[in-house]
Amino acid sequence: MARFRRRTCIILLLFILFICSIMMALKTLRPDRAGFGDPFGLGLLPELQQRTVLLDSKQNSLNRAQGDTVTRASNLHSIAVNTMKASMSSVRKLEEELSSPNYNFHIFYYTWYGNPQFDGKYIHWNHPLLPHWDPKIANNYPKGRHNPPEDIGANFYPELGSYSSKDPAVIEAHMKQMRSASTGVIVLSWYPPGMADENGEPTDNLVPIVLDYAHKYNLKVTFHIEPYKDRDDRSMYHNVKYIIDKYGSHPAFYRHKTSTGRLLPMFYVYDSYVTIPEIWANLLTVSGSQSIRNTPYDALFIALLVEERHKHDIHRSGFDGMYTYFATNGFSYGSSHHNWASLKAFCDSNNLMFIPSVGPGYIDTSIRPWNNHNTRNRVNGKYYETAFSAALLVRPEIISITSFNEWHEGTQIEKAVPKRTGQVVYLDYKPHKPNVYLELTQKWSEKYRKEQEQWLM
Fold first, then answer.
1. Mean pLDDT, to the nearest integer, of 181-190?
2. What is the 3-state secondary structure (H, E, C) of 224-285?
3. Measured between alpha carbons, how far is residue 10 from residues 4, 47, 70, 113, 451 in Å?
């Protein structure tokens, strides 16, 4: 009996030693990934954790590149595709947390920013101070150019810093922000290949990356045709054909369902009024000499309305609708909220779409120091909500938002942070958080959805 007890004690002791050794071994083990690995790092925090991975990949790709612009764009696209494949599972989990996209909320987006890390220099952040057209007034204001990263051409400062629009981590962060705001369609500022605004560089090579990341977040992309050199009926036909042929098969390419059930691409045409109606009619009417109607490249073309008389020109030109763009109530006839009801009535009676543009405020004195009188204070979000309220009153089919990231004119809803340098004190969103305008957009997107359901009853 004593021998049995002794054997039992030995077995029990060995068992305890075995358990202890297992526990010690487990304690010394470390996971392959940190606690915020794939499910969170690439999806929820692209602007933080993903940046390191993408910057390393980007640097390796650039070292292998031959300096050719097309090759660099191809490398960026490959990085973006590989990164998205690695993090699609995190996006699926995000779907449960993010508001569903509202494809009747269109938001203007700009990819013209650059920095030395990705572009070899600063682009647009170093925007020049624009002189007043009257030399007597111009002499009273400073001249020169901004000097990033501390001094940028904006009155607010981005949470992401003076970023490059080529940075895949930035593009992903932007898509996540726009999706969190419950917008659905990105209206991408676009110049033809090889062309750009006077302060920028060509950006058409970024379109594939934007489309890929938009698709990852279930967003759609349409195009904001800028006033490029020699824009007319012939070049527009050529460029619309180029866009549809090159990008039209992408799942993120936006098509709008018309009242007749057709699915058509949509193009916003900035500064459309600088071209006479007769030229536009060549392209946009069935009998026009360059008619795009009833061809594989037919689409919905939305003109910019600034002055009241433009509504008649837009109708004569053959456009399908109008938008107002400017986030400055009272600045122009089109941007003045009290005119939206009559514009909507005109559009309804002429089978046109009316797309009012709302914005959180306006301030461009960092690049136009003489333009104080057109500043529109954000009033801690009240200005933005007033604009949304005015838009909903006219029951539009689509609302456009100026803008996600037009920092020069202070219309951005992208996250901004407080910043003070030796010479500049930037505006910010305090007392609210950096994402307050994203949250307000999401709030009004849901309100619009509910009210639209009632309109259709």
1. 98
2. EECCCCCCCHHHHHHHHHHHHHHHCCCCCECEEECCCCCEEEEEEECCHHHCCHHHHHHHHC
3. 10, 57, 74, 73, 77
Q: Which residues pair with 106 in a beta bridge?
A: 185, 400
Q: What is the pTM of this model?
A: 0.82
Q: Residue 215 in 3-state DSSP?
A: helix
Under a CB-based contact definition with an 8 Å cutoff, are residues 253 and 220 in contact? yes
- Reduce the DSSP state of residue 295 to 3 states and report it: coil
User: Do 116 and 203 touch, CB atoms closer than 8 A?
Assistant: no
Contact status, residue 175 vs residue 206, Cβ threshold 8 Å? no
CB 212 within 8 A of CB 77: yes
Q: Among positive and negative, which fits the CA dihedral 230, 236, 240, 246?
A: negative
CB neighbours of residue 219 within 10 Å: 23
pLDDT score, position 423:
82
Model confidence pLDDT, tens digit, residues 127-136: 999 999 999 9
Alpha carbons within 13 angstroms on the beta-carbon side of residue 259 total: 7
Tell me the three state secondary structure of residue 158: strand
Q: Residue 29 and residue 11: Cα distance in Å, rounded?
A: 27
- For 306-344, the DSSP string reads -STTHHHHHHHHT-SEEE-----TTTSTTT-GGGHHHHH
The span from the CA of 197 to the CA of 271, in Å, is 13
Q: Give me 165's structure tokens.
A: 């629009």
- The encoded tokens of residue 47 equal 């602007």
Residue with structure tokens 């940190």?
Answer: 34
Number of residues that make up the chain:
457
Q: How far apart are CA 165 and CA 188, in angstroms?
A: 12
Contact 328, 335 (CB under 8 A): yes
Q: Which helix (H) or strand (E) holds 21?
A: helix 2-28
Q: Strand pairing of 255-257 and 263-269?
A: antiparallel
**Mind listing the pLDDT tens digit for each residue in 234-256?**
999 999 999 999 999 999 999 99
Sign, Cα dihedral of 402, 405, 407, 410: positive
Among 178, 215, 41, 180, CA closest to 98 = 180
Judged by DSSP in three states, 79 sits in helix
CA distance 230 to 355: 27
Of 338, 417, 329, 341, the C-alpha closest to 378 is 329
